[in-house]
Amino acid sequence: MAHGKSIELFLANGTADSLIIAELSNWNGKAIKIPRIEVTECKRDDIKGAGVYFLFCKEEDDTDSVYIGESETVQDRLIQHLRDYNAEKEKFYWTTAVIFLGRDLNKALIRYLEDRFVQIARECKRYNVLTKNTYSRTVMKEAHVAAMEEFIDNVRVLINALGYKVLEPTVQKTSDSADEDEKLYLNTGAVRAVGIVTSEGFVLLAGSKINEKASEKSLNKGAIALRKKHFAAGRVKDLTTTEDILFSSSSAAADFVTGYSVSGPASWKNAAGQTLKEIESK
Description:
- The protein is an alpha+beta fold.
- It is built from 8 helices and 13 strands.
- It has helices at residues 74-86, 107-124, 142-161, 176-182, 221-232, 250-258, 264-267, 276-281; strands at residues 7-11, 20-24, 30-35, 51-58, 64-71, 94-101, 128-129, 184-188, 191-198, 201-204, 236-237, 240-241, 245-247.
- Strand 11 and strand 12 (240-241) form a beta hairpin.
- Helix 2 (107-124) packs across helix 3.
- The longest helix is centred in the middle third of the chain and has 20 residues, at 142-161.
């Protein structure tokens, strides 16, 4: 069972658009969220220490990307990223950095953290991970591994609270029975789709069969563009979804799988045949 947690946010310059310090109760680590434009002039001593960092980018096609790195002197490394971009050595442009620091972090520990965060972010598939290589052969004592895994758990809480779900799976894993009870189905023609309602919207599960064609007259331009985007990204192969896909609503997911405009609440049904509309009306 999950327990409640207390997070303290400190707006260092009195505004949420500037540097923010986030700390969990009973944890010696901290998060520092800092805009790109403030990195060079920041005078804080803690930002000069050892830690891991996430650089968040917004691509031209509106997709989210992240670069995950580590450094024994984080601020110096961030400034080097700025210089590399200006020298055209780096192609990605990040707007915000979120840094995680902790007592007694050393090179071996932050290398372990970087590798784990890259692995988790890739598994979650929320962001395009720009980090190419990590040091994956770090040898550590069992006690250090346990301590860093606890560090990772706390980072997942803080970075999510700061608005970045880079380390959160699209569908939270629960017991198998609970998953089955929550699943909704849309079966019509060649469509054999399975989805689930989440706190963020509606998730179309991997393995769903979708309709090949889309109605240009029925679907709006946004829905057509979204369909093309997911096909191009490889999330659909042989008319089958290859990963979980998050939609803003059940209707958006229904439009995606059928290829024409349809009511999601009336179309998605549970195993007992109840529509989503009937379920939610209760």
